[in-house]
Amino acid sequence: MASVLEIKNLHVEIDGKEILKGVDLTIKQGEIHAVMGPNGTGKSTLAQAIMGHPSYDVTEGEVLLDGENILEMEVDERAQAGLFLGMQYPSEISGVTNSDFLRSAMNAQREEGDEINLMQFIKKLDKNMEYLEMDPDMATRYLNEGFSGGEKKRNEILQLMMLEPKFGILDEIDSGLDIDALRVVSEGINKLRGQEFGSLIITHYQRLLNYIKPDVVHVMMRGKVVKTGGKELAERLEAEGYDWIKEELGIDDVTVTEDK
Ligand code: ADP
Ligand code: MG
């Protein structure tokens, strides 16, 4: 049966300041949703809260994966339950090679005693790196250390292709990518597309959606989802920007600020 990720009335604070003010969003495995919106509207906060970043306090609401509240799980349990978060700014880990990191992450998802066979791992790694047009050296380099922006993003998609989570939450996966890297990254996501994979693709540019056609598009403003539609919504945003939504809502400022 297809898994479902439900975000219900999610309120999130950072340092006592409310950033998310009741986000509702449901995504089924097999679907790709885009979350769009101008800067400062709470998109990254949504991603961080789902994955359990310690600075983000959930004050109200829930996030359910197949009916289970993942907000009560530790971060590693969330990953084991099948969630993957690609970060807007992935961290560098010196001393851990990319390949070691991937293998540990994959083994962490499996039962003890059922570790992935080394040959199978290498085969899968080689295949996916080739698909993503990555330099084979990237496997033995330390995680993200000295990686260019584009290499980091490709590496995230590599993690996604190796880990095959139920849901991938990708924050600004397209930022800072040249057109080649954008194409490769999009192809990686499109390859995963199917019954077993759902994704929340957070982007502030519509250009990514020329490569990855979302099933559903959400627009965030002021810490909420203010509009949901199909592909045509992304097309209208590309043609007209966000002003018409602001007019519909009767607001000037889209960002998250106090006293609204
Ligand atoms: P987006 O990803 O849509 O650009 P963010 O979720 O990053 O928006 O930020 C939403 C709002 O939360 C912004 O006003 C931002 O300044 C504020 N914010 C984000 N992170 C922090 C933080 N660590 N401390 C204080 N405020 C933050
Ligand atoms: Mg952001």
TrEMBL record:
Gene Ontology terms, MF aspect: ATP binding; ATP hydrolysis activity
ABC transporter domain span: 5-247
Q: Which Gene3D superfamilies match?
A: P-loop containing nucleotide triphosphate hydrolases
Question: Which UniProt keyword terms apply here?
Answer: ATP-binding, Nucleotide-binding
Cross-referenced CDD domains: ABC_FeS_Assembly (cd03217)
Q: Which InterPro entries match?
A: AAA+_ATPase, ABC_transporter-like_ATP-bd, ABC_transporter-like_CS, FeS-cluster_ATPase_SufC, P-loop_NTPase
The answer to whether UniProt assigns keyword Lyase to this entry is no
Q: Which Pfam families match?
A: ABC_tran
Q: Does the keyword Manganese apply?
A: no
The record, for NCBIfam families, names: sufC
PANTHER family per record: ABC TRANSPORTER I FAMILY MEMBER 6, CHLOROPLASTIC
State the similarity comment. Belongs to the ABC transporter superfamily. Ycf16 family.
Please give the name of this protein: Vegetative protein 296
Gene behind this protein: yurY
